[in-house]
Amino acid sequence: MSEGKKVMGIVAQFAGTAELIAAAEKVKAEGFSKWDCHSPFPIHGMDQAMGEKRSNLGWIVGACAILGGGGALLLQGWSAASAYPHVISGKPLFSYQAFFPITFAVAVLASAFGSLLGLLAIIGVRLNHPLFESDLFKSFSDDGFLVSIEADDPKFDPDKTKEFLLSIGSGTTELLEYSE
Amino acid sequence: MAEPPLIAGNPTFGKVTDVITKILEDKTQFRWYIAFGISSAMLAVLGGLIGYLVWEGTGVWGLTNPVGWGWAIVNFVFWVGIGHAGTLISAVLFLLRQKWRTSINRFAESMTLFAVICALMFPTIHVGRIWLLYWFAPVPNQMGMWPNFRSPLMWDFFAVGTYFACSLIFWFVGLIPDLATVRDRAVSKIRKLIFGVLALGWRGGNRQWKHYEVAYLILAGISTPLVLSVHSIVSTDFATSIIPGWHTTIFPPYFVAGAIFSGFAMVMTLAIIARIVYPVNNFITINHLEKMAKIILLTGMMVGYAYATEFFIAWYSGNTYERFAFIRRAFGPYGWAYWIMVSCNVLIPQFFWFRKIRRNIVWLFILTIFVNIGMWFERFVIVVSTLSADFLPSSWDYYHPTWVDVWTLIGSFGLFFTLFLLFLRFLPMIAMSEVKGVLPQADPHHAHKANEGGQA
Lengths: 180, 456
Hints:
The complex is a heterodimer.
Chain A: E1 5-14, H1 17-30, E2 35-38, H2 46-50, H3 57-83, H4 96-123, E3 145-150, H5 158-167, E4 172-179
Antiparallel strand pairs in A: 1-3, 1-4, 2-3
Helix pairs in contact in A: 3-4
Chain B: H1 13-25, H2 30-56, H3 71-95, H4 105-126, H5 152-185, H6 189-198, H7 206-239, H8 251-277, H9 286-317, H10 320-331, H11 335-347, H12 355-358, H13 361-387, H14 403-426, H15 432-438, H16 446-452
Helix pairs in contact in B: 2-14, 3-4, 3-7, 3-8, 3-13, 4-5, 4-8, 4-14, 5-6, 5-7, 7-8, 8-9, 8-13, 9-10, 10-11, 11-13
């Protein structure tokens, strides 16, 4: 057990938002693929620096809204006109005007659940991510601006990557090592 | 003239974290226990009275014929209205890029959530046989019956239910980065576990943030129509009936303006208390309170305009019943309630024209309490005074609440404050990640601008 130490990746700290953006551009130019920039809040301009595409969460939510609203309209129409037809105040059985509020409400409800569940599905819920073992990494939720590179990255090498990160302006780095 | 900074005291990112998380990491204050003791005692009263109500039936309330909707519906509309400011602050002001909202949005969203819980409780217990509440839901039952979706009461059930669910999701999504902050600072095992699960493995990576920001934007986008739709639909409970005084098209906008008006008053009242108890003066500054006072002034005048329009239309319509209902509203047996409403909602906010008053904590506190009282009376006037005189003079009656009505209202404040105190104690009351995002040093071009000598 004692001899085998597995390297999971490396974390490097930068001074602030501008420094992190500059670092992101250099890490991207170097050709890394499994890396990320961690910050206490979203940084304006980071997507371009990292070469990230737009999120496609909107499409998921849009589909949820259409399904939710459509389902609600069908349920109301079917139950009022077919399953349980009752004439109330002399109005037509399929009174689509009266069905609008609930159609709208359910579309919104489905979109809200779609946003939350879609978000969690895309970003993934990993309570035991290796990064959480690093004390340096934990500063991201306070005032830390960090780059993390995973060991799975084909370009990753414990020593060279560390040198590279220090050369692009990182003050501190920490290698994520775990005993097997 | 330069705008004052959003966050006073020019804190660092770390300082923001320290100040806010210390509130929940420090030992519980003695005065918190006192406040919690009072509010949970009130909550216990509420629990007892709900039990009594369910056991005995709705006859324990002052409901009569024709006033079949008494204080329970007054309280329902009151509490739903309170909730609206939270959504306005968190969603509408977000879309309008009003950065000052970051200090108060968590606060206001929590208030929304707890107010909607109080609101939902009232129609739930008002049905009397609450074990049959599932008849509202469109689920097949043994009688082969389906709900009447053409009824505004069904719209209301869906609108308020959706409102609660969306507010909860919006609130939780906003909390995720802050929950991660608490998790990463946690020392005890139990705190690590609880916040570790709640934060859902948040790592603040840009590959997470970019989806998170879209999710937040979408939630703001879909919550924005809710600000208008929920209270509009609540107002259709009244407006689609044929009772004179209710059957008017002005109800939806009138209700929405009143909701925002009352909600901001409640946010302000709570924010002032929080500023006294917790060290958050640099986050919730007097500038924030002044901005809220301006919104109260604006919406208060919209409400006043709606009161005037109602009277004008009653006269202009030439409808005898409509005219009678409004003259009776102001000068009849419930005239006292009408004039309390007008004084609190139309006259009192006029004080906010004065900058000195808008920036004086004591004045703000007193005036917002009056607004809260006035808005409760507005719903009382709409519900009770209108119902007490319907088309049939033989059934007219004066409505008297019972002690159960009174204590149920007081108890609902117990429920509200118990939840709010738990929130203040155990969750970050200010959205730390959002506040950090609006600090000047969060802008990547900040250093650049400062070097050029320009306004950062």
